[in-house]
Write the structure tokens for this entry.
Amino acid sequence: IEEGRLNLPPLVELSDEAIFHDTRRAYEKALQANGSIIRVKRKNRMEYIVDHTLAPEVLTNDADYSFERGTLLALNLGFLLHFPRSFIRSLDSLVHEVIIGDIENSLSRISPVFERRIQEFLRHAASPPRPIDVTEMVHDAMSEAMLTLILGEEYTSEDNVEAVNHIAVEVATLAGIFENLSPWARSFPSTWRALSWLKVMCFSIPYYFIFGIGIRAFKKLSDMSINGELMSKTTKNKQSVLFSYALRYMDPETGDIKILDRLWILGLLLGLIFASVHQTAVVMIWAILELAKRPELLETLREEIITEADVNGAQRLTYASIRNAERLDSFIREVMRTKGDTLSAVRHTMRDVQIAGYDIPSGSFVIPIATLSHLNEEYHGTDAKEFIPDRWLGRSKPAVMVSPSYYPFGLGRWACPGRVLAVSEIKLAIMLLISHSTPTLVGDNYEVVDPLNVTSVAPRGQVIFSKI
Ligand code: HEM
């Protein structure tokens, strides 16, 4: 009935092999042959794929193409749409107001964690230097840093760091991020989704989250409720992100935080852990491996490393010194532009929508293929496909600045609110690594594990860190 009533874009059949192993070429070729929009079935779901000419309209017109529905449904978290309040809006305000609104303070809290973790890592990895995979160090450092920022230092035991690593991976599994890697998931997507849902909800989240960090954080929220007035007056600036955010749910008269609000805040905690740890860790690994390929850049990058007194008077890399490292920023922007994001930002139509002479039915997934924008010669010149580390130097285009030609952090109203923190963390980790060692990539190459999902699945490679 739909097909008869609507003028749908061309339907293109792509094999699983093409979708999962040759993603970029398969979708780009299909668009070249059929116009700026096509329909492709992937894992039993019809998706509308658009090229760079339609990407800005799809990503920024939130009235027709919903970010919230698109992202939550694509992540298999559609149940969150049925709550009376918006999960994404709450998460967005938490990140904007409490983390990014006070970014200097946020950075000063996590900087010592990276310093310690990277020093320990180099002590082990660089004496004597030997091939090593950075994945574990990056995930541990990210998990501890975010625990410190979100909940406070007292939550950073090794067990909790381990639990956060698991939570980030388990929510990613729930969200289907690793589906592409499993032949079972690709062949039986609905059954696989139902089973991983049960596993994550009934085992992983209770085990790693509720019975550990969750109960403790809930107890603290309850204590805040009892001593609310006192806590809000005396310790507001000293609170970690979550508890500082919780103060806005506090009844100004009684100091009480309602039980439903406390549970809501715990849900946000889970969402924040997932949003902040996993993707940043993955992009950090991309950046480290790309840098290890190019030791010739180290000399000029090291010149930018300038420590200064932080808010506590200790000499370290502060937010200002990290922000001023422009060469490193350009390098990171180039890593993010060229790493090959394909179907990453997702939208869902709110009604039947007309675009480029075609109709897209209400309730459809619409997804731009990012490589057509990120590697486009019209936008980036004839060398668009080359990796040029200094490409962005002096052009006032920091790694966090999104546009129709660069949207690894999304575009429009919902562009990633945590991107200033993410890029700062990546810069911080790289500055600490290269101020004490020279990384070189073993075999001059690394493996792209999932070409369909480069932002959420880390590449695999070995690096040798030689002490300087
Ligand atoms: C390199 C690391 C990161 C990448 C590549 C990334 C990428 C993205 C992308 C692509 C979106 C969807 C935007 C859209 O479709 O227009 C998004 C949304 C979001 N990100 Fe990130 N992100 C990163 C790190 C972070 C961090 C560190 C935080 C939190 C501190 C965070 C919090 C969020 C939240 C809450 C949203 C939901 C949208 C909103 O609230 O506006 N992200 N991110």
Notes: The radius of gyration is 23 Å. The chain is about 55% helix and 10% strand.
